[in-house]
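User: Assemble these into one structure.

Assistant: Restating your components, then the assembled model:
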Amino acid sequence: MFLIAEYRSKDALVEALLALKGAGLTAEDLAVFSEEPIEFRKGILDRHSNMSKAAVAGAVTLGTLATWFVYYAQHNYELITGGMPIFSFWATGIITYETTMLGAVLATFFWFLWESGLIRRRDPEAPIPVIGPASMSLRVKCDSARADSFVETLRRTGAIKTERRGK
Amino acid sequence: MAEHPELLPYGIIREDLFRPLSRAGSKWWFTVTVCFLLVLAGLAAWGVQLRDGLGVTGLNRPVFWGLYIVDFVFWIGISHAGTLISAILRLTDAAWRKPVTRAAEAITLFALMIGGLFPIIHLGRAWFFYWLIPYPNARLMWPNFRSPLVWDLVAILTYVTGSAIYLYLPLIPDMAQLGAHNKPWRRKLYTTLSLGWTGSDREWHALEMAMKLNAVIILAIAISVHTVVAWDFSMSIAPTWHSTMFGPYFVVGAIFSGIGALIIVMATLRRTLHLENYLIKRHFDNMSKLMLTMSLLWFYFTMSEHITIWYGNEPKEMGVFGQRTRGDYAFWFWTMVVVNFVIPVTLLGIKKLRSITTAVIASFGVLIGMWLERYLIVVPTLVTPRLASATSVYSPSWVELMITVATFAAMILLYLLFARLFPIIAVWEYKPHSPEEED
């Protein structure tokens, strides 16, 4: 089941997160919803990201593919180059560079869509709290057996409103 | 006027920044109509060129490049306003960047869209533009990857893609907010484009990560793009073009003109959308200082370029040098020096003279000056080529002039439409980190 708690203070929210983690919940069970990005200290609600690795992988892949393509194209359909080499790494370098960067941009974008969950199938059971401009919501995924104690924790840490959703 | 707009209550910020989306005054409609008609006129002029061929332009032998290439370099330069400036400010975490970045990023995208059209317009038989795309043609030959034209295509496509993504990413949270309360068609537009954004910490974390990474990548792309544009010239052995410093010279010029465009856009938005509380004097002051720095850098590069030619005394290069400094183009050359260096340094360098008005005046001058600079790079060299018997004159035809005017109208039109569809300042970036910070 899910618990939703509304907070108006970042400090209270941090306290709640620490208390819930102390009670055995992991970052995967917790989600904070807000209209602005909230920065937490390390260890409070860490989200692992592989985006930079994805950017590098995208860059290397597209750059390599483009270089291979240019090499292949120039060797298979030879231009008249007046005695110059058919394939020149110097001239191709610009295309390699640009496509490497393009690979990084595209990989970053698609990885963002994936990692943020925007293009993944979300848990249909998980409720999305309505957030106002002056509030932050904490969503907690927990066993119904422990829900009462977690609600108590949420209230104790300063939640102005709590509600239960799902089974 | 708010001294610290970020401290205004969020409700007011949101209302102020979303308000321009719901109201369009008669001035807005008038400007849109005029710009639209000018764009139509430009399309008609292009239609004439497509029907009758490049002969309707002032281009001739050996002046194969004229206004179209000048406009191309100019608009690609303007595009450096946005993404580059925004990326630098974002990476350095400059707090004053908040109201500036989106306006700047939008300039980049629109300027690139316009600039990217010129190589196609210049092709003559524009319907064969797809020959640039790498595929084997009827003679089983692939495009010549050594050609700077193909480099341009790849570089600009990369930059357009990167800039569009860079503009789109921070728009997502704002569009999610707009999706909740608006007209049905707008609601559908914003809901679709915001991809079901919920505001979870996972989404924010991914967004911030993506913005940081993109800012780094886009910096590298922006510099490379204008360097590649410079190499269109410097890879040839035409007098005064074959210069190793053309890359950085063009990049500096691009940022310089980009800042000018950004200041004008900021001042216009401030006045027309009543954003006096958000685009405050501090922003213009900081942008003015940036422009002053770029003016000094531009002068340094221009002087280095010309003093080397003069001291080298190579006859063909001196021919172009003479044309520029005391020949047919001298008036434009010295005008360029005045508007790119003397005026900005005077108006922005002297603290007492520095204001929003003087920043705008200097910016208009810089835009004119940087357009002239590109004209003075392209045309004098081509009218005085190495083969003395091939010298010529060039004056642009009405078709070229009309298309040039239409691109300026297109830029204004795109910007006006964008400002009506999307908040021109990132609303979520203004939100205080804690609701307690609100009054």
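Chain B has one domain: 5-130+231-430.
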